[in-house]
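Dear Dr. L.,

I hope this message finds you well. Following up on our conversation about the binding site, I have prepared a predicted three-dimensional model of the protein together with S-adenosylmethionine. For your records, I am including the exact sequence and ligand specification that went into the calculation, followed by the C-alpha coordinates. Please feel free to forward this to your student if that is useful.
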Amino acid sequence: MTSRSRDFWEDRYRTATEAGSSLWGADPNGWIADRVAALATQPGLAIDVGAGEGRNAFWLAGRGWRVVATDFAASAVAGMRRRAVEAGAAVDAVEADATTWHSAEPADLAVLCYLQLEPDALADAIARAAESLARGGLLLGIWHDRDDVARGLGGTMTPAIRTTPEETAAAARAAGLEIELSGRRDRDTPAGPACDCLLVARRP
Ligand SMILES: C[S@@+](CC[C@H](N)C(=O)[O-])C[C@H]1O[C@@H](n2cnc3c(N)ncnc32)[C@H](O)[C@@H]1O
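The resulting structure of the complex is given below.
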Protein backbone atom coordinates (compact mmCIF):
# COMPACT_ATOMS: atom_id res chain seq x y z
CA MET A 1 0.00 0.00 0.00
CA THR A 2 1.74 3.20 -1.14
CA SER A 3 -1.25 5.55 -1.38
CA ARG A 4 -0.95 8.28 1.18
CA SER A 5 -3.22 7.41 4.08
CA ARG A 6 -5.97 9.53 5.53
CA ASP A 7 -3.80 9.88 8.68
CA PHE A 8 -0.87 11.17 6.61
CA TRP A 9 -3.02 13.91 5.06
CA GLU A 10 -4.90 14.65 8.27
CA ASP A 11 -1.59 15.23 10.03
CA ARG A 12 -0.37 17.56 7.28
CA TYR A 13 -3.54 19.68 7.28
CA ARG A 14 -3.76 19.80 11.09
CA THR A 15 -0.13 20.94 11.34
CA ALA A 16 -0.62 23.58 8.64
CA THR A 17 -3.81 24.84 10.31
CA GLU A 18 -2.07 25.14 13.68
CA ALA A 19 0.78 27.05 12.03
CA GLY A 20 -1.65 29.32 10.17
CA SER A 21 -0.09 28.25 6.88
CA SER A 22 -1.33 26.74 3.64
CA LEU A 23 -0.12 23.62 1.85
CA TRP A 24 -1.24 24.60 -1.64
CA GLY A 25 -1.68 28.38 -1.64
CA ALA A 26 -4.68 30.43 -2.65
CA ASP A 27 -4.44 30.41 -6.44
CA PRO A 28 -6.26 27.78 -8.50
CA ASN A 29 -4.34 25.37 -10.68
CA GLY A 30 -3.54 27.31 -13.85
CA TRP A 31 -4.55 24.58 -16.29
CA ILE A 32 -7.89 23.99 -14.53
CA ALA A 33 -8.59 27.73 -14.45
CA ASP A 34 -7.76 28.13 -18.15
CA ARG A 35 -9.97 25.19 -19.17
CA VAL A 36 -12.91 26.41 -17.09
CA ALA A 37 -12.51 30.01 -18.29
CA ALA A 38 -12.70 28.74 -21.89
CA LEU A 39 -15.99 26.87 -21.37
CA ALA A 40 -18.89 28.19 -23.41
CA THR A 41 -21.46 26.83 -20.95
CA GLN A 42 -22.94 28.65 -17.96
CA PRO A 43 -21.68 27.71 -14.49
CA GLY A 44 -23.68 24.97 -12.78
CA LEU A 45 -22.81 22.35 -10.17
CA ALA A 46 -19.13 21.43 -9.88
CA ILE A 47 -17.52 18.76 -7.73
CA ASP A 48 -13.90 19.11 -6.63
CA VAL A 49 -12.70 15.67 -5.54
CA GLY A 50 -9.75 15.55 -3.14
CA ALA A 51 -10.11 19.31 -2.85
CA GLY A 52 -7.62 19.84 -0.02
CA GLU A 53 -7.84 23.47 1.09
CA GLY A 54 -10.23 24.20 -1.77
CA ARG A 55 -8.12 26.53 -3.93
CA ASN A 56 -9.93 25.31 -7.08
CA ALA A 57 -13.33 25.05 -5.37
CA PHE A 58 -13.29 28.64 -4.10
CA TRP A 59 -12.04 29.93 -7.45
CA LEU A 60 -14.95 28.13 -9.16
CA ALA A 61 -17.44 29.53 -6.61
CA GLY A 62 -16.10 32.99 -7.36
CA ARG A 63 -17.09 32.45 -10.98
CA GLY A 64 -20.65 31.45 -10.26
CA TRP A 65 -20.34 27.70 -9.77
CA ARG A 66 -22.04 25.88 -6.89
CA VAL A 67 -19.33 23.57 -5.62
CA VAL A 68 -19.28 20.38 -3.61
CA ALA A 69 -15.68 19.99 -2.43
CA THR A 70 -14.73 16.61 -0.99
CA ASP A 71 -11.69 15.36 0.86
CA PHE A 72 -11.08 12.46 3.23
CA ALA A 73 -8.98 14.58 5.63
CA ALA A 74 -11.28 16.01 8.31
CA SER A 75 -9.04 19.03 8.99
CA ALA A 76 -9.04 19.99 5.31
CA VAL A 77 -12.84 19.77 5.24
CA ALA A 78 -13.14 21.81 8.45
CA GLY A 79 -10.88 24.47 6.91
CA MET A 80 -13.00 24.66 3.76
CA ARG A 81 -16.19 24.92 5.84
CA ARG A 82 -14.73 27.80 7.87
CA ARG A 83 -13.64 29.61 4.73
CA ALA A 84 -17.01 29.08 3.02
CA VAL A 85 -18.82 30.69 5.99
CA GLU A 86 -16.34 33.56 6.26
CA ALA A 87 -16.45 34.27 2.52
CA GLY A 88 -20.13 33.50 2.02
CA ALA A 89 -18.99 31.21 -0.79
CA ALA A 90 -21.15 28.52 -2.43
CA VAL A 91 -18.79 25.72 -1.39
CA ASP A 92 -20.25 22.71 0.41
CA ALA A 93 -17.34 20.83 1.96
CA VAL A 94 -17.91 17.10 2.47
CA GLU A 95 -15.69 14.56 4.21
CA ALA A 96 -15.65 11.61 1.83
CA ASP A 97 -13.39 9.04 0.22
CA ALA A 98 -12.93 9.66 -3.49
CA THR A 99 -12.99 5.96 -4.29
CA THR A 100 -16.54 5.51 -2.96
CA TRP A 101 -18.30 8.92 -2.94
CA HIS A 102 -20.40 10.15 -5.81
CA SER A 103 -22.63 13.18 -6.07
CA ALA A 104 -26.35 12.60 -5.53
CA GLU A 105 -27.11 15.59 -7.77
CA PRO A 106 -25.77 15.30 -11.34
CA ALA A 107 -22.80 17.62 -11.74
CA ASP A 108 -21.80 19.67 -14.77
CA LEU A 109 -18.11 19.64 -13.93
CA ALA A 110 -15.82 17.31 -12.00
CA VAL A 111 -12.31 18.44 -11.03
CA LEU A 112 -9.61 16.01 -9.90
CA CYS A 113 -6.46 18.01 -9.20
CA TYR A 114 -3.38 16.06 -8.09
CA LEU A 115 -5.49 13.32 -6.53
CA GLN A 116 -2.54 10.92 -6.54
CA LEU A 117 -3.71 7.35 -5.94
CA GLU A 118 -2.57 3.89 -6.94
CA PRO A 119 -3.99 2.74 -10.30
CA ASP A 120 -6.97 0.73 -9.00
CA ALA A 121 -7.99 3.40 -6.51
CA LEU A 122 -7.57 6.12 -9.13
CA ALA A 123 -9.74 4.17 -11.57
CA ASP A 124 -12.38 3.92 -8.83
CA ALA A 125 -12.18 7.68 -8.16
CA ILE A 126 -12.51 8.44 -11.89
CA ALA A 127 -15.48 6.06 -12.11
CA ARG A 128 -17.21 7.76 -9.14
CA ALA A 129 -16.58 11.19 -10.70
CA ALA A 130 -17.98 9.90 -14.01
CA GLU A 131 -21.10 8.60 -12.21
CA SER A 132 -21.52 12.04 -10.67
CA LEU A 133 -21.69 13.80 -14.03
CA ALA A 134 -24.85 14.84 -15.83
CA ARG A 135 -25.09 14.03 -19.54
CA GLY A 136 -22.72 16.44 -21.26
CA GLY A 137 -20.83 17.01 -18.00
CA LEU A 138 -17.07 17.47 -18.12
CA LEU A 139 -14.26 15.86 -16.13
CA LEU A 140 -11.00 17.80 -15.82
CA GLY A 141 -8.13 15.80 -14.34
CA ILE A 142 -4.50 16.72 -13.72
CA TRP A 143 -1.87 14.54 -12.06
CA HIS A 144 1.88 14.24 -11.61
CA ASP A 145 3.18 12.19 -14.52
CA ARG A 146 4.83 8.88 -13.64
CA ASP A 147 7.35 8.99 -16.45
CA ASP A 148 8.65 12.32 -15.15
CA VAL A 149 10.05 10.99 -11.87
CA ALA A 150 13.59 11.17 -13.24
CA ARG A 151 13.41 14.98 -13.26
CA GLY A 152 12.52 14.85 -9.59
CA LEU A 153 10.14 17.81 -9.61
CA GLY A 154 6.48 18.49 -9.07
CA GLY A 155 4.93 16.54 -6.23
CA THR A 156 5.20 13.01 -4.92
CA MET A 157 8.18 10.97 -6.07
CA THR A 158 6.41 7.67 -5.41
CA PRO A 159 5.93 6.27 -8.93
CA ALA A 160 3.02 4.02 -7.89
CA ILE A 161 0.85 7.03 -7.07
CA ARG A 162 1.86 8.95 -10.16
CA THR A 163 -0.02 8.08 -13.32
CA THR A 164 0.07 8.35 -17.10
CA PRO A 165 -2.29 9.75 -19.74
CA GLU A 166 -2.84 6.20 -20.97
CA GLU A 167 -4.00 4.96 -17.57
CA THR A 168 -6.29 7.88 -16.80
CA ALA A 169 -7.84 7.80 -20.29
CA ALA A 170 -8.41 4.03 -20.00
CA ALA A 171 -10.11 4.52 -16.62
CA ALA A 172 -12.31 7.29 -18.02
CA ARG A 173 -13.26 5.19 -21.06
CA ALA A 174 -14.09 2.23 -18.83
CA ALA A 175 -16.35 4.57 -16.84
CA GLY A 176 -18.26 5.45 -20.01
CA LEU A 177 -16.71 8.86 -20.72
CA GLU A 178 -15.56 10.15 -24.10
CA ILE A 179 -12.01 11.46 -24.18
CA GLU A 180 -11.55 15.01 -25.45
CA LEU A 181 -7.92 15.38 -24.42
CA SER A 182 -5.36 13.01 -22.98
CA GLY A 183 -1.77 14.13 -22.81
CA ARG A 184 1.09 15.77 -20.99
CA ARG A 185 2.34 19.27 -20.47
CA ASP A 186 5.28 20.87 -18.71
CA ARG A 187 4.57 23.15 -15.79
CA ASP A 188 7.12 25.67 -14.53
CA THR A 189 8.29 25.20 -10.96
CA PRO A 190 10.99 27.28 -9.21
CA ALA A 191 13.41 24.35 -9.71
CA GLY A 192 12.55 23.74 -13.36
CA PRO A 193 9.82 22.14 -15.46
CA ALA A 194 7.68 19.32 -14.08
CA CYS A 195 5.40 17.23 -16.25
CA ASP A 196 1.67 16.99 -15.63
CA CYS A 197 -0.62 14.30 -17.01
CA LEU A 198 -3.91 15.76 -18.30
CA LEU A 199 -7.39 14.43 -18.95
CA VAL A 200 -10.48 16.10 -20.37
CA ALA A 201 -13.42 13.70 -20.73
CA ARG A 202 -17.15 14.14 -21.17
CA ARG A 203 -20.18 12.06 -20.24
CA PRO A 204 -22.10 11.46 -23.49
C1 LIG B 1 -1.90 16.85 -3.47
S1 LIG B 1 -3.38 17.22 -2.58
C2 LIG B 1 -4.26 18.21 -3.74
C3 LIG B 1 -5.32 19.07 -3.11
C4 LIG B 1 -6.12 19.93 -4.09
N1 LIG B 1 -6.81 19.13 -5.08
C5 LIG B 1 -5.26 20.96 -4.75
O1 LIG B 1 -4.89 20.76 -5.92
O2 LIG B 1 -4.91 21.94 -4.08
C6 LIG B 1 -4.24 15.67 -2.64
C7 LIG B 1 -5.51 15.68 -1.80
O3 LIG B 1 -6.23 14.48 -2.01
C8 LIG B 1 -6.77 14.06 -0.79
N2 LIG B 1 -6.98 12.61 -0.89
C9 LIG B 1 -6.06 11.65 -1.09
N3 LIG B 1 -6.64 10.44 -1.17
C10 LIG B 1 -7.97 10.64 -1.04
C11 LIG B 1 -9.10 9.79 -1.05
N4 LIG B 1 -8.98 8.46 -1.21
N5 LIG B 1 -10.33 10.35 -0.92
C12 LIG B 1 -10.46 11.69 -0.74
N6 LIG B 1 -9.41 12.55 -0.71
C13 LIG B 1 -8.19 12.03 -0.86
C14 LIG B 1 -5.76 14.46 0.26
O4 LIG B 1 -6.32 14.57 1.55
C15 LIG B 1 -5.30 15.80 -0.31
O5 LIG B 1 -6.08 16.86 0.18
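In brief: The chain has a mean pLDDT of 93.

With kind regards,
A. P.
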